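Structure tokens please, single chain.
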Amino acid sequence: MQVVNVRNKELIGILDTFMDVLLSCDRTKYPYPRKDITPDYATGMEYLLHMQGKKVDGFPEKTHGIDLAKFVPPQQSLSNALLKLDYELINWSGSRNNAVKMLYPKGGYMGWHHNANASGYNLLLSWSQTGKGYFRYQDPKTKELVDMHDIPGWACKAGYFGAFNEPDKIFWHCVNAEPEERFTLGYIIPHRGMWEDMVADIETA
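Here you go.
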């Protein structure tokens, strides 16, 4: 997983415009899943070993956050902004493979999982106010745990999620939003060349 510097002014404008609408909405009553484990446990070694010791489908089993792609917000302004975001990002990137629009409340998390059911090259664009959260993964080769800390504003990561038939590329990862809200756009890109082009475009000022 590599860091991608978000420099493209057109992209930043699209993303910031959406965030302005999202942050103007009352999000306190959104139907977040029950928080039945702590963020530290959800992203810790004990839970990782637990998940690796059982048969899983690739999706996270424990999440305290909501996927706006699967949620009809009560605010019409946000519904309109989500449609506009999809339209503008499809036109900007050429990719229709938006996998997730994840909004984490304060103290939100996504527990260890590997997305082998949705394999491919990926791009993860995340926003937070002060950058206190992090994305954590286990290196498929070394088994080392690596933290990629958020930054204030937009951050981007790019990598590859291995499929079930690629055991040496299974990519276990998780998220801890820490004491602030966090929003993530996730994309699965089917072709390496297209993925490389998107990475280059994001880094072009």
